[in-house]
Amino acid sequence: WYCNLNGVQEQDICIPDRRAQMCINNLVNVKSGNEKNDLKEQVLLSLNTESQLLFNKWKKHNSFNNEEFCNDLNRDYADFGNLIKGTDIVAHGNSKEVEDKLKQIFGENENAKSDREKWWNDNKEEFWNKLLSSVKGKGKEGNVEIKECTKDATLEEIPQFQRWVQEWGKEYGEERPKKLQNLEGICKEKNGLLNENRCNNEHECKRTCTAYESWIILKKEQ
Q1: What's the CA gap between 133 and 156, in Å, rounded?
Q2: Considering the entire predicted model, what is its pTM?
Q3: Which of 137, 157, 177 is the last residue of a domain?
Q4: 62 phi-psi bin (left φ>0, alpha ψ -120 to 50, beta other)
Q5: Residue range of the domain that includes 43
Q6: Residues 22 and 125 grouped into a single domain
Q7: Considering only CA atoms, which of 131, 151, 130, 147 is closest in space to residue 139?
Q8: Mode of pairing for the β-strands spanning 140-141 and 144-145
Q9: Which of 11, 12, 155, 164 registers the highest number of CB atoms within 10 A of its CB?
């Protein structure tokens, strides 16, 4: 998670690394003349690349989970919707460049935001199918099997800030027990009891304690 970044419209918000690294660079390359058609092609290209990168990220860590992978696809889809509709709260780096390009295409008058939302709604089923198509065809690849992924129709209706808070809370709730279990496994005495003094005395246990404490501090700061 990336916290305290400049150009974020909500104060004290942390951005998930998934969103910070989202593949949107080519959206600034929309050609003049038939901008909306070319924008659609560029969005489809971005979604295709994004789903591949997301798949490779899960596969790389050798911890593929079809349900969580599907959740990330849904989150990416909703974030793309915010970007296109003009409700994205990230306004720095390439996100700002994309927003500037979208303002050139749709204008900045009082109807622009509704025009952007309508354009997204007119094309969003094709966008979702593109997000899925490049990974569904993989079938079984090593120990990875991509199963069906259903679109969460309500997710994009939730404000982006609220979605990210929910995403952070889910990650924390799942990660903390795993890290604590790992800590206990390394630092327990032979009698099975956890001796806190070992955090200061034994090298491997001390290193694990330090890593756990640093992670807790980071999460509190977020």
Answers
A1: 20
A2: 0.76
A3: 157
A4: left
A5: 1-157
A6: yes
A7: 147
A8: antiparallel
A9: 164
Range ranked top by mean pLDDT from 87-91, 110-114, 167-171, 190-194:
110-114
Question: Exposed, middle or buried by CB within 10 Å (0-12, 13-18, 19+), for 149?
Answer: buried
Torsions phi, psi of 104, nearest 5? -65, -40
Whole-angstrom distance, CA of residue 61 vs CA of residue 140:
17
pLDDT at res. 67: 85
CA dihedral (161, 39, 127, 110) positive or negative: positive
Give the residue from 133, 157, 181 where a domain finishes: 157
SS (H, E, C) the chain: CECCCCCECCCCCCECHHHHCCCCHHHHHCCCCCHHHHHHHHHHHHHHHHHHHHHHHHHHCCCCCHHHHHHHHHHHHHHHHHHHHCCCCECCCHHHHHHHHHHHHHCCCCCHHHHHHHHHHHHHHHHHHHHHHHHHCCCEECCEECCCCCCCCCHHHCCHHHHHHHHHHHHHHHHHHHHHHHHHHHHECCCCCECCCHHHHCHHHHHHHHHHHHHHHHHHHC
50 in Cβ contact with 77 (< 8 Å):
no
| Beta bridge mates, 144 | 141
Tokens representing residue 23 in the block: 């593949």
Structure tokens at 90: 């990230």
Residues 201 and 101 in one domain: no
Same domain, 136 and 211: no
